């Protein structure tokens, strides 16, 4: 079972989240993960096509996906889209922003629509919302209360070594593990 985590990151925060997603994938026996950074260079299409699931990640810029990710979506995935090469692969997503809210949902909607247009099967986040009761805290998993995908927040004045916080990073790892588990079941059903 192969899973690719493909992401753009302007200043390293989303890259750190991507690494945690990949770590989560590796928690599942038999899962092999590839981290693919979108840097503006050639995209390894054959590696994407060979994957059973693709997990997309981008920072939220101006309430939307970063231009680096949009370039991948809009300019270069057309051949894969025309032939529906990713049809029935599993997909999931994550986004990272500077503000607590920061309009991250719009970025996740962009990722999920992108997956839908490629005929993919979207895997959401099955965690109850954290930090939403009198006993909750920012240390809770899914502290931003998202279902569509993982939301993480990085303080604007800190480097990726110090932010996002550990609960966001663990939530990212949880998503990776979930996608790998669901992919394994999906593949078993197809056999
Ligand atoms: C051009 C630009 C637009 C941004 N727009 C938003 C935004 O709409 N909401 C938000 O919360 N943060 C916004 N930010 C902050 C980034 O989301 C934040 O710095 C994030 O950690 C960047 O991730 P990266 O290091 O992976 O690029 C913006 C940053 C840039 C550079």
Describe, in plain words, how this protein is organized in 3D.
By secondary structure, this protein is of the alpha/beta class. The chain has one domain (2-190): Flavodoxin domain (Rossmann fold). The chain has helices at 13-25, 45-49, 67-76, 78-82, 104-117, 166-190; strands at 2-7, 32-37, 53-61, 64-65, 90-97, 121-122, 150-153. Strands 1, 2, 3, 4, 5, 6 and 7 form a seven-stranded mixed sheet that branches. The two termini are 13 Å apart. Bound molecules: flavin mononucleotide. Flavin mononucleotide is lined by residues 9-14, 59-63, 96-99, 102-103, 154, 156.
Q: What's the CATH class label? A: Alpha Beta
Strand content: 15-25%
**Topology order in helix (H) and strand (E) letters:** EHEHEEHHEHEEH
CATH architecture: 3-Layer(aba) Sandwich
Mean pLDDT: 96
Q: Which regions are unreliable across 5 or more consecutive residues at pLDDT < 50?
A: none
Shape: globular
CATH topology descriptor? Rossmann fold
Helix content: 25-40%
Tally of distinct domains: 1
Radius of gyration: 16 Å
Number of helices: 6
Bound molecules: flavin mononucleotide
**CATH homology superfamily:** Flavodoxin domain
- Straight-line N-to-C gap: 13 Å
What secondary-structure arrangement, pairings included, does this model have?
Layout: E1 2-7, H1 13-25, E2 32-37, H2 45-49, E3 53-61, E4 64-65, H3 67-76, H4 78-82, E5 90-97, H5 104-117, E6 121-122, E7 150-153, H6 166-190
Parallel strand pairs: 1-2, 1-3, 3-5, 5-6, 5-7
Antiparallel strand pairs: 3-4
Helix pairs in contact: 1-6
The structure holds flavin mononucleotide.
